[in-house]
């Protein structure tokens, strides 16, 4: 049975609070932004995003420190936090989500397929969630999108 998308709920809560969202994506390749913008009225909340598939774009566009990449890699909680912070700073959004990890088909930086980190930056700080997701490339990406949105919904419900 397919999971219900948490995106409409997220947008309703942010709209009601007059808050905004931006995204920084790597392994999801724009699918997180697409899921958000597929909902009518998303423009009231969603400012935009950066798809930084290449490491040097994470550094140049999002301000992820090169030293962080060298020490922890791009498949890391540290990188996810830096990406979320970078896109939040870039867009001026209230909240920012980031996705980085390994969708497959091959491992990366010694991490197996399904290793994912979701970053969340907001007024109360920056956190990253570590996920290990089963499935093929598309399943990993789809579940990452769902879990990223759900993580922000959960934070707003606190």
Structure description:
The protein starts with 6 loop residues before the first helix and ends with a helix. It contains six helices and five strands, in the order αβαβαααβββα. The longest helix is centred in the C-terminal third of the chain and has 21 residues, at 137-157. The protein has a five-stranded mixed β-sheet, sandwiched between helices. Helices cover 44% and strands 22% of the residues. Helix 2 links the parallel strand 1 and strand 2.
Short description:
This protein has 158 residues and is of the alpha/beta class. The protein contains six helices and five strands.
- Low-confidence spans: pLDDT under 50, at least 5 residues? none
CA radius of gyration: 14 Å
Strand order of the largest sheet: 2-1-3-4-5
The biggest sheet amounts to: 5 strands, mixed
Mean pLDDT: 95
Number of strands: 5
Structural class: alpha/beta
As a percent range, the share of helical residues equals 40-55%
> What is the H/E string?
HEHEHHHEEEH
Shape: globular
First and last CA, distance: 28 Å
Keywords:
alpha/beta, single chain, 158 residues, 44% helix
Layout of secondary structure:
Elements: H1 7-17, E1 21-25, H2 31-37, E2 46-51, H3 55-62, H4 66-72, H5 77-91, E3 95-101, E4 115-122, E5 125-132, H6 137-157
Helix pairs in contact: 1-6
């Amino acid at each position: 049975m397919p999971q219900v998308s948490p995106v409409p709920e997220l947008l309703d809560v942010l709209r009601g609070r007059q808050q905004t969202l931006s995204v920084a994506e790597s392994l999801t390749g724009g699918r997180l932004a697409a899921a958000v913008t597929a909902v009518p009225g998303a423009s009231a909340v969603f400012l935009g995003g950066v798809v930084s598939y290449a490491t040097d774009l994470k550094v140049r566009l999002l301000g992820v420190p090169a030293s962080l990449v060298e020490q922890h890699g791009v498949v890391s909680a540290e990188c996810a936090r830096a990406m979320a912070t970078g896109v939040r700073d870039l867009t001026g959004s209230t909240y920012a989500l980031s996705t980085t990890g390994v969708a497959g088909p091959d491992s990366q930086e010694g991490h197996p397929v399904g290793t994912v980190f979701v970053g969340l930056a907001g007024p109360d700080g920056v956190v990253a969630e570590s996920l290990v997701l089963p499935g093929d490339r598309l399943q990993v990406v789809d579940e990452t999108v769902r879990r990223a949105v759900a993580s922000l919904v959960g934070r707003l419900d606190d």
